[in-house]
Design brief:
With 259 residues, the chain is of the alpha/beta class. The chain has two domains: 5-97, Transcription Regulator spoIIAA, CATH 3.30.750; 106-257, no CATH class. Helices cover 34% and strands 20% of the residues. The chain has eight helices and eleven strands. It has helices spanning 55-63, 78-90, 106-109, 111-146, 178-184, 202-209, 217-222, 236-239; strands spanning 5-10, 26-32, 35-41, 48-49, 69-72, 94-97, 152-158, 164-170, 227-229, 234-235, 255-257. The strands form three sheets. Strands 4-1-2-3-5-6 form a six-stranded mixed β-sheet, with helices on one face. The chain has a three-stranded antiparallel β-sheet with strand order 8-7-10. α1 packs across α2. The longest helix has 36 residues, at 111-146.
Amino acid sequence: MTPSNTAILWANDSSPQKQQDSYWNYFTLKWRQRKLLVKLSQHVQQPYIPSLENEQWLVDCLSHSPVQLICIDPDLGEVWLRLWADACKQANKAVFLRVPSAQITSLQESSFRWGLKRLINWSGAALLILSLSPLMLVLALLIYICSPGPIFVRQWCVGQRGKLFQALKFRTMTVNLEELDHQVSSNHKDLRKCEVDSPITHLGRWMRKYSLDELPQLLNVLRGEMSLVGPRPWSLQDAVKIGSEGQQQLNALPGIKSL
């Protein structure tokens, strides 16, 4: 077996995590067989890597690295997890949240049944996109007219076996306020709608009432990141708050429609 290598990465006070204690600014990097594990470290060891000053520096490092899969410890916190996830996306690297392994279900044990479920999800999503494409085009046009700005928003969520992916939704809020809405609903355990007041557009409020803002997630189903029916996806902010016992729930393939 190929031995693992270890290094320490330091993030200085100009980083997004400067509000946390100083010992949280040291990362332990362990890589083996093109897999990289990123964890927090309280002690500086050698070899030592220069400070992580910006996302582009990390993107450049990952792009030139032979590592193909990055596994991140949830203890890094949402800010650093988001930075690593964004950098991995730009560097075209698969990124996972480190979660406890769940028991293999009978469906997963049968490759035929699992493949059949994947085929049903893909076929169903493709059929729904074709049939609902006129409605989605109308909604996209209304969003563009009523609230200038991006038509879609992307939110980092935890998928099957802890794999991070960006769930697509129609934008229902004024520009740059989608993150504020998620902070308001941070007490929720998933992406279910929040009942408190938030800066939602009139069109967005109507779309949320009928869950029309989630129609773009059919594209996530086509990519194999979600299922048509399954547990609601956990946002990155909520996933880091649950305990180690609850983290086993992050192994499931999330769905658009909750059971």
